[in-house]
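Show me any protein, keeping tokens residue-aligned.
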Amino acid sequence: MEYDIRGLEVSTSSKTAAQKLDLAVADYLDYGTNAGSLVKEALGEDADCALAQCYRGYLLMMLENRAVFPKIQEILDKFSEGGPDLNPRERLHVKALQGWVKGDLLNACLAWEQILEKYPLDLMALKLHHTMAFYTGRSNVLRSVVSGVLGEWDGNTPGYSNVQGMYAYALEECGDYEQAERWGREAAERNPEDLWAIHSVAHVMEMQGRTQEGTKWLDFSPEKWASKNMFKAHVWWHAALFNIAERDYHSAIQLFDNELSSINSDKYIDVSNQAALLKRLEIAGVDVGDRWDLLAEHSATRINDHILPFRDAHFCLALAAKGNFGVARKHIDSMAVFARSGEGWTAEATKTTLIPLCEAMLAYEAGEYAKACDLLWPIRNELAPIGGSLAQRDLFTQILIDAAVKSGRLATARNLLSERVARFPSSKPSWSQYARVLSDLGETQRAKRAATHSGA
């Protein structure tokens, strides 16, 4: 029996294997690129190390590709056949992996919560729970689980800054911006390598409309993050949102071309960040050229995956935005089959939320703006189950507003924009759009007052 860096038991006789797993967890939480190789090295020291096997399964799941599922099943089969000895914590990790691979994200999260109840210093369980709670859109769960273990951590515990960063993000998603920024800044100061903490502060600035501060906060050179994994593209995405809010579309396009697209490879195309950014630019009136082509081409290969509703939403968006309506329809049909035959959270969220959202996006991109309004309006405040952050899901509100304007439903647009400027009082583009809608409705004086906030 060995122990990890935080004193938790690891079922292995190899001290080196336990140390390799510590390094893998640290690399994973700091968004490095070596976690997988470090886990392999741990297995090289002890092929029967149960925690290393689980970590391998987790990292394979993070690839979000059904092609690796047989490898994950091989790992699970070893445990069911009376393979490596497991302590109680490791049994719960296996349970979590079993739920995750089935798409039963709620039960996977419950298994991680059971771990944290007895072993609050299990940093990998906390991070995985945080990630999957994020992808199920459950903000209060994010906050409660991190705060539930927070009292067991302090500045002397390895990985404390990572916990601070997670807590900062959870607070932000629950609207506690002041405390979120405080925790996030402290986390980033303790550990400048933690992109999650940096990104959590950027979220606060996004939600408060502090666009110029946000641009300065994310003023990093690409070389600074050269060793980071693909998550760095999401942080650059936030920088591009600040550019769009300031109407600096040229800088946003440059970030797309130079930073977001730079993480693309033969095996991975970053559809979610890139599609969301292109659509925001198009709504702002920017011609994005042929930049949809690669995203739609890759999305066409993923129409039967159904691993995360959040990913499916953006695959469908890319296909529809490119005009590949036939493939987008096949994608939605595949979702319907999956929703009927699948089990757990992913199948249920696909049925109740994802399919109506995708039908709305398909109508919108086909120019059927009234139909898009009819589909999006009833679910506009019920989109959390597809996952993602408030900032990410805001794209679908922007699509609804644009559809309302283009379909001549100006009263609907006025309602939505009134809500928007109340929520984002510093958003110049929103005030400008609000002023135009009020003017078209003949509300001249209100339009003039709104225009004073637009910076026009």
